[in-house]
Amino acid sequence: SQNSFLSASLPEEIGTLKKLESINFSNNDLTSLPASFVQLVNLRTINLSYNKITNLQPVFTNMKKLELLDMSHNKLVEVPDHVKEVAAIEINFSSNQISVLSEAIAECNRLKVLRVDENCLQLSAVPEKILTDSQISLLSIDGNLFESKDLHAREGWEKYMERFTATKKKLY
């Protein structure tokens, strides 16, 4: 569904809605989030897909209950170091213009699913730490500037596949 009622920004007052558990501001023209967004500590799902957000602001830091952060189909060009403060179980950065992926994302201790399909990542921009030293058990990375199978030769691929397989077994 098209929202399209918001253009460019949300009001600073959004931070007063402290009991909110789910937010869907998809399909708008948002370019950034207000600083008060950091006060929405009870959020479980955040859908900011199909906007015009250009950078990942440090506003998700206190959201310890966060399950899903969807920022797909925006204009992100990098995933900065402060991403390690995001406590989400799933992060969707698909269909952006990301060419830099901080290895700090491996420090997200609740993160199980990372979607970075359809971006501008080179193989060298995918931190080995995601494979060797993270909780990520589903890395969705097709449609970047390398063949997905090239990732299989990277250090830590087997360790990642152990997590992937263990997760799949739990599902069936």
TrEMBL record:
The entry's keywords: Leucine-rich repeat, Repeat
Superkingdom of this protein's organism: Eukaryota
Signal sequence, renumbered to the chain: none
SUPFAM superfamilies: L domain-like
Gene3D superfamilies with a match to the protein in the record: Ribonuclease Inhibitor
KW Repeat (keyword) present: yes
Annotated protein name in UniProt: Leucine-rich repeat-containing protein 57
Species: Larinioides sclopetarius
A GO CC term assigned to this protein in UniProt: cytoplasm
UniProt keyword annotation of Glycoprotein present: no
